[in-house]
From TrEMBL:
InterPro entries: Elong-fact-P_C, NA-bd_OB-fold, Rib_uL2_dom2, Transl_elong_fac_P/YeiP, Transl_elong_KOW-like, Transl_elong_P/YeiP_cen, Transl_elong_P/YeiP_CS, Transl_elongation_fac_P. Belongs to the elongation factor P family. It comes from the Bacteria. Residues 132-187 form the Elongation factor P C-terminal domain. Keywords: Cytoplasm, Elongation factor, Protein biosynthesis. This is Elongation factor P. CDD domains: S1_EF-P_repeat_1, S1_EF-P_repeat_2. Pathway: Protein biosynthesis; polypeptide chain elongation. Residues 70-124 form the Translation elongation factor P/YeiP central domain. It holds the Pfam family EFP. HAMAP family: EF_P (MF_00141). Involved in peptide bond synthesis. Stimulates efficient translation and peptide-bond synthesis on native or reconstituted 70S ribosomes in vitro. Probably functions indirectly by altering the affinity of the ribosome for aminoacyl-tRNA, thus increasing their reactivity as acceptors for peptidyl transferase. It comes from Hydrogenothermus marinus.
């Protein structure tokens, strides 16, 4: 059994156990209805299936913290079905099935440091860094003098991922991307 904490101590990005399954907390909201007991609505992702569920707890409930290992490793290569990561200190390699990584795979770059989550030595998920820089390899041309920042257009990054960028971004530009919500942050001059 993992450590138990009161539901009011819950935090985003925490790992909890629900019905024997590991979940990552994506968000939560304390609800105090006019009548009845206060409760906490938790949005959490099942680290084994990738499904996102909403779970409701009474404010007096306790939750169990998931007891698994986190390892920081660098992305190495994709073999067609698994993404391989290397531990820089030991040289150990770990394959992570493409289904576990899901859409995050489009943002992986060679050498990128990620957190790998292991449950009983089995990879159950990864966490990308908060942000990373990519090169734009395709986007429609912007218009001279068009500096509107609230109008967006699609752009393809050097990893194949597609995000929305402001109109002034052109092919060859480097852009910083928030990897938590996959949004453009700023243009980077390197």
């Amino acid at each position: 059994m993992g450590v138990k904490i009161g539901i009011n101590q819950i935090k985003r990005d925490m790992f909890i156990v629900v019905d024997g399954q590991p979940y990552k907390v994506l968000g939560y909201e304390h609800v105090k209805p006019g009548k009845g007991q206060a409760f906490v609505r938790v949005k959490a992702k099942n680290m084994r299936t990738g499904n996102v569920n909403e779970i409701t707890y009474k404010s007096s409930d306790s939750i169990e913290l998931a007891d698994f290992e986190q390892k920081q490793m660098a992305y190495s290569y994709f073999d067609g079905s698994s993404y391989w990561f290397i531990d820089a200190t030991t040289g150990d390699m770990i394959p992570v099935d493409a289904n576990i990584i899901g859409d995050d795979a489009k943002f992986l770059k060679e050498g990128m440091e990620v957190w790998i989550y292991l449950d009983k030595n089995q990879p159950i998920g990864i966490e990308l860094p908060k942000a990373a820089v990519y090169e734009v390899v395709h986007t429609e041309p912007g218009f001279k003098g068009d500096t509107a920042t609230n109008t967006l257009k699609p752009a393809t990054l050097d990893t194949g991922a597609e995000i929305q960028v402001p109109l002034f971004i052109n092919i060859g530009d480097k852009v910083k991307v928030d990897l938590r919500d996959k949004r453009y942050i700023e243009r980077v001059n390197e």
